[in-house]
# Entry
Amino acid sequence: MSENEKYAGLKLENQLCFPLYACSKEIIRKYKPYLDEIDLTYTQYIAMMVMWERKEVNVKTLGESLYLDSGTLTPVLKKLESKGYITRKRSEQDERNLVVTITEKGEALKDKATCVPGKIGSCVNLNADEAKILYDLLYKIINSMK
Amino acid sequence: MSENEKYAGLKLENQLCFPLYACSKEIIRKYKPYLDEIDLTYTQYIAMMVMWERKEVNVKTLGESLYLDSGTLTPVLKKLESKGYITRKRSEQDERNLVVTITEKGEALKDKATCVPGKIGSCVNLNADEAKILYDLLYKIINSMK
DNA sequence: TAGCTTAAAATAGTGTACAATTTAATAGTG
DNA sequence: CACTATTAAATTGTACACTATTTTAAGCTA
# Structure
């Protein structure tokens, strides 16, 4: 095997993970100006997306939805609580669980956030078919790693 | 427009960015045990990949390759220097530039790292065609955002 | 029911990321 | 040549992200 072949896998351009990592970061960077307008970071935004759908959820379930653990979520949720978008309270049935509940202010934020996905979509240069293919491939990877 | 339509874009499952973000994180997590063996974090690993290719590079160029700025790279490079894989030295032609150079120990690490891409590849459940399609779509997005 | 195990969050510690600012060096211009 | 503008890293401050550990609560069993 030549030197080139031996080390081919170690080139950035031959990696699949690197463009995933770079693409993810760059799109999140694109979100920033729009999320700044509603005073959310990207992590806070995806946490709110779950809250807008579920209204009430414990930290474990939220973490499973977002692929994040309590080490990451605890400070994020405390921040969202301090902004008045959610409340945090131990479950009465099982006090190990912390129940996160959306507030009215949190619900109201949803209307301000509706424009965000479209604005991002318009700066990602893929047509609907390509986006669907990409989406399916990403979930194929994610689901195969569970 | 119905409530459902109005808010459809705000569901995690309808976002393209979220699976990108999740997929990137989960694959990087898969790297960890293999990178632990050679005592590198993922960021240190991709920085070393550039060094293995280029031998010598300044921080700005390295940052353009990795989509990272000096704020992120400075501590990463100091760490790699402390591990003996690179040296950091101001350019004599233009002292604003910091020249990063790979050491012999850094070169030697390349051999230990050759097995990493294959091990990751085998836990990403895509065939060669799918991987190629994904790769091309990711770079299409990345390049369209420049 | 006391003791062991499991489970859910929180905490501690390390390492990115990134925006904004600062510092130092170089380039460009009247 | 002095002055201004630009450039490259480093620094500062905030916010994740993750591993490992700790704390507290609940379930389980001899």
